[in-house]
Sequence to fold (212 residues):
Amino acid sequence: MTERPDDTIRHSPSADRNMTPILGVLSQVLPARGLVLEIASGTGQHVAHFASALPGLAWQPSDPEAQMRASIDARVRAAALENVRAAVALDAGKARWPIDSADAVVCINMIHIAPWAAALGLMAGAAAVLSDDGVLFLYGPYRRDGRHTSPGNARFDDDLRGRNAEWGLRDVDDVREAAASCGLALQRIVEMPANNLSLVFRKTAASSKTGE
Fold:
């Protein structure tokens, strides 16, 4: 008798495609040890892949949706990963997060499918929990200098805004300015497959005022 797959576990084809390129950047910018908080972990495919490849780090997945948290926890159990904590309920747009401190914050494909207020909350929350020199890593499609980087991204942006007027691809300069206001400096932009970008920020010592 064959074992039935756990139908709690959700799956995203796009996560299958992008998790290896993203891991390539994370392996360069994350610390060797410490706690990584992932915002909007979704199905859990990313955190499971990263935690398996980077076992020296502890991983804290999160998602505001109960079904996604169940998927994350089921996937982690199936993979027998001991360096991944139970998923927590976290809404990036809320003023207080259930995590007090982290050495890095990772957020993949979120800010274009959420209101701009969620991006601002992400910056403020990351600045509040990160230690000095801590990393905030963002991945997704962005506009640059007010323009789309590909026709496909332009169509995707139109589709998002048609579904929700508060959604849409963000401009790198707007994201940079929002992060800088919280003491997070953009240090690196990495071009990724399928016209996506990785943005790597670091918390500056002067940002300790954030969250007071």
